[in-house]
What we know:
Elements: E1 2-13, E2 15-21, E3 27-46, E4 53-56, H1 68-80, E5 87-92, H2 103-118, H3 125-132, H4 139-144, E6 147-152, E7 156-159, E8 167-171, H5 179-187, H6 197-205, H7 209-214, E9 217-218, H8 220-227, H9 230-240, E10 245-248, E11 255-259, H10 262-272, E12 279-282
Parallel strand pairs: 2-9, 4-5
Antiparallel strand pairs: 1-3, 2-3, 3-5, 3-6, 6-7, 8-11, 8-12, 10-11
Helix pairs in contact: 1-2, 2-3
The structure holds cytidine-5'-monophosphate.
Amino acid sequence: MTTLYEYAFAKLNLTLDVLGKRDDGYHDLKSVMQTISIRDDIEIDIGTGQPWCLKCDKEDIPTDERNLAWKAAKVYLDAMGKDADGLEIRITKRIPSGAGMGGGSADAAAVLRALNRHYGDPLSIYALAELGARVGSDVPFCTIGGTAMAEGRGERLRKLPDMPDCFFVVCKPEFSVSTPELYRKLDETAIAKRPDNTAMESAILAGDIEKVSQNLINVFDPVVTADHLELNYIKSIFNAYGSIGQQMTGSGSAVFAIVTEFEFAAVICNMLKGNYPQVFIAKPV
Ligand code: C5P
């Protein structure tokens, strides 16, 4: 039996544009995505000789084939024609669920990377990401990580230079939003403000954190905020204590601020933690 270890980093959407509904029911999107230092830890025992099992230190995470990490292992082994002779996947969860931070997708991507390494890296990282699209829309980006432009359903990826250094404060309110429902709602909404992905890309290329912060736009943000005004409260705290840009990530409900000094991040955390126990400081990774 061999044990594999892999980190699973959360993601944030710096921009998120939804371009239209496709024939397959999914939506075409365009998004600048970033992995951050909030992470789950993945351990995989391979060759246990036992039926597959998945353990997670947090309740309310599925521990069977519904878990994206389990799905990823199955997709990888089926595609490569391998028999692992029993798997045990253990997940130490830190990424909040229902946050728009890609927690399940990050775990799945980590499983893909770990298994691919175990078998001697037969797939390139891009081929591995393509395989990840079978597991979920955010899995391809989470496989590659760093800073990237995602298009299509999320499977067409173009690596960007690392975003300029900064701190993120991420706050996950108690409520969560159903992603399919939110897409349906967006279909009925006229999108007032879309991101300028070219401007975001230029800001990243120039290493200009102010411009990156000014170009944060997520088309889902106003739709969720309309129903959950507390997002405005969190953003007002961000704004009052040194944030240079803030918005919701993915389909929510987590919101994040960009700050340039750790001290600002620490003060924002202190201001929020009474009402919001799930508040984190992170860096781009
Ligand atoms: O692929 P994933 O399971 O992450 O997607 C969850 C749901 O979000 C899909 O069932 C779909 O309703 C919606 N979705 C979409 N277009 C995308 C990504 C997700 O409509 N590009």
